[in-house]
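Q: Convert this sequence to structure tokens.
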Amino acid sequence: MAKKHITITGDLGVGKSSVAKKLCEMLSFRYLSTGQIQRELAKSKGMNTLELNYYAENNSEVDKYIDDHLIKINDSEDAYVIDSRMAWFFVKNSLKIYISAHPHIAAGRVLADMERKGEPAASDLISKSKELLERRSVEDRRFKKIYGVDCADPGNFDIVIDSSRASINEITLLIVRLFELSNKELPVNKYWVSPYTLLPTKEIDSLETGNDKMLKDDDVPGNDFDMNFPPEVIKYDNLYYIINGHKKVCEAINQNIALIPVKLIGYDAIHAGPEAVHLIQHWEEKLKFLFDVYPDK
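A:
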């Protein structure tokens, strides 16, 4: 069944609103942001958004007011892009997108966004990161209690995109393409990340190059990927590690591909010791770039 709407949720500070608005421009869809509704409601009550979240834990009219806006979309003749924590739950006929980012990167974006309204003051990256996690925790606890769902469970979504090192335009173009593929009932990979965020677990000098391309031979870089054999990765402590497919990731970096499909195979613990530090440094030297975030030693 073809998807009519696109619902977008994800971590705080990942660019959800910007992506949603850009999608509306490209697809001529209507835009709805429950975050904006929430900020306006908080302002009317003399609160910031974190305070409103605590207030909503014991005052159901807040969620009902927001939920009613989402439920009405199911009967709308117009196609929508909805930026909302719970739209995936209420808007049934939609491609469900989750956008994530490393907490420190997300916090830095929020600090840099001087136009953002209704946010509690935070003077540095660490305090802003903790504040975002607190706000998310309050919301998650409330939604779990009311609806019995985990808003961060990847199983609830069709597509999961890590935006830690991708631009709004790159993410938007990818979603448009996946939306088109999905409505043609063609296979769509679930997880997408920047190759520049994938940490190696093998020495780069041990890899053969040139015969493990991410793109098909007749494809335009950045547009079409071989989704049958994506690199296999694990996620630990908000970082991705390559388990299989180092050569594919190298090729993607050499071709400067913004986002690539990956297969998430687990959340096993990886501890960064001297050997891991050497692998990462050598990877950066050979491929001529620097990671934005490093594992704790």
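The chain has ten helices and ten strands.
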